[in-house]
Amino acid sequence: MQRTLVRCLGWMNLPFVYSGMALVVPFYMLFNHQGYISQYHYFRRRFGHSPFRSFFDVYANHFRFGQIILDRFATYGGAHFKLVTEGNERFLELCDQPGGFMQIGSHVGNFELAGYMLSQEKKTINALVFGGETGTVMENRNKIFEHQNLKLILTNGDIDHVFAMNNALADGEIVSMHGDRTFGSQKAIRCMLLGAEAELPMGPYILAATHDVPVVCTFVMKESVKTYHVYVYELELPDDVKGKNAKVRAAALAQAYADRLSDILQRYPHQWLNYYEFWNDGKKDTEEEK
Fold first, then answer.
1. What is the torsional sign of CA 142, 183, 72, 28?
2. Where does the pLDDT of residue 134 fall: very low under 50, low under 70, confident under 90, or very high at 90 and above?
3. How many CA atoms lie within 13 A of 110 on its CB side?
4. Where does a domain end: 44, 62, 77?
5. What is the pLDDT of residues 22-39, one digit of tens each?
6. Same domain, 253 and 228
7. Where in the sequence is the domain holding 239, given as residue range(s)?
8. How far is CA 42 from CA 38, 53, 74, 279, in A?
9. Each residue's pLDDT tens digit, 257-283
């Protein structure tokens, strides 16, 4: 089915496909109850929207998520999107320097699209990805990335990826990974995001602090059928934490990232793609319900 979708989206009219998907979204909202509730809480609590407006916000969010997934498969089929970049000059400057650095992405917008369409030849990008994707996804990723100076580091339940990332930074390369989701017992850093406490994974930030490398965060946000806006920011440490131990600097980097993420979500609230209770107030309510 996925291979057929890739072939079709290479030539089909995207607005036509989007319109068909609009009819499917209500069924997804109905049967994916946990995702619906978490997004409803997101709009109610983080933006203060009314219950009525929040319902339609959840629909808009699911519809945008579907568009982003279809765009990804359309890219596999050869479709191209216009990328408007902002701040990418700093990324290219870091590529000219001998040391390695980190690129942090998020489950907002279409971060993967940057890897497909933004290329540079000076440094290899080592992208950490989930090793359990379908064969069609992995096959198309590899086909595109082999021309983009980008290598995949797969997570398969062991710690081999940790060694691979450390080696990449030591060799002056780029490590690219998401910085917004914690999984299982992974250690977390508490940050303020959109005015409330949330937990970010410690891994990306302690890795950057331990190696003392620059960190950029990249957001790829959908603006129209064929256009995405790419925002690239370097995360700056406050003066009062420079020179302190790695754990303190990691916490500061995580908060700097959360501040940038908050700014992006204020501009693109419907492109938040974490379908679970992300903030600690939501997790508390879920525990009380149980």
1. positive
2. low
3. 29
4. 77
5. 888 988 888 878 889 999
6. yes
7. 82-271
8. 6, 12, 29, 9
9. 999 999 999 999 999 999 999 999 877
Q: Provide the residue type at 225 as one letter.
A: V
Domain membership flag for residue 224: yes
DSSP labels, 97-161: SSS-EEEEE-SBTTHHHHHHH---SSS-EEEEEETTS-HHHHHHHHHHHTTTTEEEEEE-SSSHH
pTM of the model: 0.91
Structure-token pair, residue 212 = 């003392």
* Burial class of residue 187, CB neighbours in 10 A (0-12, 13-18, 19+): exposed
Sign (positive/negative) of CA torsion 87, 88, 91, 96?
A: negative
Alpha carbon of residue 8 to chain centroid: 26
Quote the tokens at residue 148. Answer: 């983009």
Same domain, 132 and 238: yes
- Number of domains forming the structure of the chain: 2
